Amino acid sequence: MDPRCPTRQLLDRIGTKWTSMAVKLLAEEAPGELRFAELRRRIPGISQKMLSVTLQSLVRDGLVARRVEPTVPPAVHYRLTALGLSLEDPLSALRDWAETHMPEIDRNNQLADESPLD
Amino acid sequence: MDPRCPTRQLLDRIGTKWTSMAVKLLAEEAPGELRFAELRRRIPGISQKMLSVTLQSLVRDGLVARRVEPTVPPAVHYRLTALGLSLEDPLSALRDWAETHMPEIDRNNQLADESPLD
DNA sequence: CAGTATCCTACCCGATACTG
DNA sequence: CAGTATCGGGTAGGATACTG
Q1: pTM given for the model
Q2: Do residues B54 and B22 lie in contact, with contact meaning Cβ atoms separated by under 8 Å?
Q3: Is B25 on the interface with A (CB under 8 A)?
Q4: Nearest-angstrom CA–CA distance, A82 and A90
Q5: Which residues from chain A sit within 8 angstroms of residue B38, using beta carbons?
Q6: Which tens digits make up the pLDDT trace of A41-73?
Q7: Where does residue B63 rank: exposed (0-12), middle (13-18), buried (19+ CB within 10 A)?
Q8: Which A-chain residues 58-117 have CB contacts (< 8 A) with chain B?
Q9: A contacts of B15 (beta carbons < 8 Å)
Q10: Which of A80, A92, A99, B3 is the most buried (most CB within 10 A)?
């Protein structure tokens, strides 16, 4: 198996802390857009810097499109591209699995904590 | 959106460098088992330490089962649990997407490198 | 409003050596 | 064979301050 396989490269992207949340919010809005500040409001705990870094990476990958209204102050809108939207299918499958099975994983970890002799 | 949502917790696990490869190899073998050294051989570049850490984490989560034959030297076998096997569906969907679309993402990044003024 | 620019810390991961 | 122990570098990510 190749440690540089496409799957690993993809996980290096969507595995970063805020990426999956940004993609989900933009997917819910698709084909509409969200502004920088609106995304910031909907992702509790994210800093301006991390939202900026996250979105730049998504734009660079071609998963998200950035549109600037040249007003003062500027209004910047983000939306998923067709490529980004196509990622929603496997990503929502992963979300469904997580919501269904993460509680069981949590229980398994608690059991491991209670029986440290295994 | 909750930054501690199940999806993020799941990505924190399968997003680590070697986890998705270990799961894939064990899934291909399911319901059979693989030994430590055999996994090591099939994951080029992984160190003993990282394979050990990766497998321990998977066992702790209940995604992988560990079976020790008390011989000298010991023979340790790993296999996916039912829970681990259920993860294969969304994970293979993600792999399929990665193989199909990562080349396009690579091209997008190359274009971004060539046009730094955007 | 939508970003940059710095600084700093935690921790993932690799390299290496050792062991029952 | 299947681990554990230890050390160290690189980097993701947080806090804070500044700007067109």
Answers
A1: 0.94
A2: yes
A3: yes
A4: 14
A5: none
A6: 999 999 999 999 999 999 999 999 999 999 999
A7: buried
A8: 60-63, 83, 86-87, 89-91, 93-99, 101-105, 108-109, 112
A9: 11-12, 14-15
A10: A80
Q: Which two tokens stand for residue A58?
A: 């998504």
* Closest to A33 in 3D by CA, of A70, A73, A85, A71: A85
Cα-to-chain-centroid distance, residue B30? 14
Q: Are B90 and A93 in contact (CB under 8 A)?
A: yes
Query: How far is the C-alpha of B42 from the C-alpha of A108, rounded, in Å?
Result: 28
- E-strand spans in chain A? 34-35, 64-69, 75-80
Count how many residues are written for chain B: 118
Domain ranges in chain A? 6-114
Q: Is A93 helix (H, G, I), strand (E, B) or coil?
A: helix
CATH 1.10.10.10 fits A6-114, yes or no: yes
CA distances from B83 to A98, A104, A109, B93 (A): 11, 9, 14, 17
Nearest to A104 by CA among B45, B115, B62, B55: B62
| Tokens encoding A2 | 């190749």
Sheet holding A64-69, edge to edge: A34-35, A75-80, A64-69
Residue B116 has pLDDT above 70, yes or no: no
